[in-house]
Design brief:
4-stranded antiparallel beta sheet, 119 residues, 7-stranded mixed beta sheet, mainly beta
């Protein structure tokens, strides 16, 4: 059974930093696109960042220059370093793995980790 488990969320003051981790179990994702998404209260789930197998990255404009995604294929883990956090970054952050271009969706999702940024 494939599982993605996020960790590292919490409560932080505006301007602070957090590092999220997402560790996969059950299969390797070294050849898969992995990403982070977030869902604020009352809003839809939005894209935050993705990383390709070759390390290429892409970010939502709202987090560009503040968030940094990386991966450690040996540990089957993807990270999201979040700096200069703002109250509007408050959301549940979800890890996604294995982009399926044919279906237009990720095949695997974590259960999320809460990030709360106080002003």
């Amino acid at each position: 059974q494939v599982q993605l488990v996020e960790s590292g969320g919490g409560l932080v003051q505006a301007g602070g930093s957090l590092r999220l981790s997402c560790t996969a179990a059950g299969r390797t994702f070294s050849n898969s696109i992995m990403g982070w998404f977030r869902q604020a209260p009352g809003k839809e789930r939005d894209f935050a960042a993705i990383i390709a197998p070759n390390g290429a990255t892409n970010y939502a404009d709202s987090v560009k220059g503040r968030f940094f995604i990386s991966r450690d294929n040996a540990k089957n883990t993807v990270f999201l370093q979040m700096n200069s956090l703002k109250p509007e970054d408050t959301a549940v952050y979800y890890c996604a793995a294995d982009w399926d271009a044919r279906r237009g969706q990720y095949n695997y999702w974590g259960r999320g980790t809460q990030v709360t940024v106080s002003s």
